[in-house]
Amino acid sequence: MNLNFKGKQEFSPVSSVEAMFVGKLDEKDKTQIELLNNDEEVKEFLSSKFKRHPKFKEISLDEIVVELKKAGIIKPAVVVKEKKIQKKPEHIGVDIKSKGINLVEDENLREQLERNSFFKELEKSGIFKNDQEFEKIYDETLSLEKNKSPETIDYYLQFAEAGLIKGGRNEVEEDFKSLEKIKKEFKNSEPLDPEENKKLKKSKKIATITELGLVYSVSELGWYGENLRMKSTCEFDDVKRGFDQIVEVLKEDDESSFLGLGLDVTFRGLHSPEFKKKFFTLLKSIRDGYKTKVKYFKNHNGDKMKEFSVPKIIIYFNINDVKNLVYMIKNIDDPKIKEEFKNSSLKFNVMNQIINQCNKLASFAEESRNDIFKKYVDFLNSVKELGWENPEIAKMLEIRHDDETSQQMDKLIEEFKATENK
User: For the chain, which residues score pLDDT lower than 50?
Assistant: First the structure.
């Protein structure tokens, strides 16, 4: 949901509801509301903010949302991605310093230059002989997703038919319409230059190979045993909620409980402005009391689940990690390579990131008085419990260390806190 706020001078005459509650919304509240996806999440936010107000129980949340809309403070709309302006190479806005450092201020151009640098590194590795082999590996990767349903509107309507969507079929249709509109906006914002457009599409496919390679390694190669699985999310939860995968801990003695962790996988430069922006967005949502929810998810058994909140981390892969996953997919029919990859050092790296981030973000969430910290702690404790029966996980927990990714996140958390305290 994109919520358009107007200045106070443009408000229509206020009612008692607005005077009591709308007037108490500060700029941070407004920014938080901009991150919300629907009326239900707006109501959850209002409830969290005003639940101790003596008059709050006298008025329904639905009435408050209606009054906010009447006042013009919020307007339901689809997030529109800013259209990228394609510039010719000779006009790239680069400031050349005396020491030879290029500072690119335009965000879209930074993305383009970073993408170009990534492909140069990948091409040097010789991992793909040519574009034909690349497309073949991409197709083979897609085939690894077992029981993957086509994501037509029928996929989403299943959840309404199961009684899992409060607004029923109408809400699902609105969600699907919103998703299709955003996808169209993304399409319209693609670079006009054919070569850059090709690189962008290839970049997305490499991201898919990386993500599905990770899912296959965890769930099929059994990196962490039988009780820890990983599944990709649907397009709606990927595009609208920012989740690529969900890691699920299976408890033999309690099939009804669900312990999950949301992943946002990236291979953007660890020290790049893009990674910082992504991580700051996560910190900001935690600080503001927001809990990201997964809406259309089927668990490891294929059971449709009611919308649930889940703690989130960002898994970072460098160029070597990407090459290793691509190499595994490329040689997936080779039993020897497959067996070697079961013991890849990458599985230690991923688990190390999961453990460290759950610890760090749980602490940050508790400091921010966001009870999502409990879910980070619950997930981490469940992994520790798996270590009681799985010596390899126990070893991973024992040798946990602050790697480069963790150290960078420590710096970014401190920088975020310093910025917020100014």
Answer: 1-14, 76-106
Residue 191, helix vs strand vs coil: coil
Torsion angles phi and psi, residue 366, rounded to 5: -65, -40
Instruction: Return d(Cα 197, Cα 334) in angstroms, integer.
Output: 34
Asked if 206 and 322 count as a contact pair (C-beta separation under 8 A), the reply is yes
CA–chain centroid gap for 9, Å, is 37
What CA–CA distances, in Å, run from 136 to 140, 143, 258, 408, 418?
Answer: 6, 11, 36, 36, 48
Whether residues 186 and 260 share a domain: the answer is: yes
Task: Establish if 370 belongs to a structural domain.
Answer: yes
Whether residue 24 lies inside any domain: the answer is yes
- Residue 316: name the closest of 221, 406, 242, 398 by CA: 406
User: Coil, strand, or helix at residue 155?
Assistant: helix
What pLDDT, on the 0 to 100 scale, is given for residue 261? 96
| Domain span at 147 | 102-420
Contacts of 272 (CB under 8 A, 6+ apart): 110, 114
Q: How far apart (Å, rounded) are the C-alpha atoms in residues 65 and 46?
A: 9
Are residues 16 and 64 in contact, defined by beta-carbon separation less than 8 angstroms?
no
Q: Does some domain include residue 86?
A: no
Of 52, 70, 88, which one is at a domain's C-terminal end?
70
In 10 A of CB 364, how many CB atoms? 20
> What's the sign of the alpha-carbon dihedral 301, 306, 308, 313?
positive
Structural domain tally of the chain?
2
Write down the pLDDT at residue 38: 64
Whether 281 and 362 share a structural domain: yes
| 238 and 115, same domain (yes or no) | yes
The pLDDT score that the predictor gives to residue 301 is: 86
160 part of a folded domain: yes
Q: From CA 291, how far away is CA 241, in angstroms rounded?
A: 10
At residue 73, the pLDDT reads 63
Cβ atoms of residues 266 and 317 within 8 Å: yes
DSSP letters spanning 297-346: -B-TT--B---EE--EEEEE--HHHHHHHHHHHHTTT-HHHHHHHTT-HH
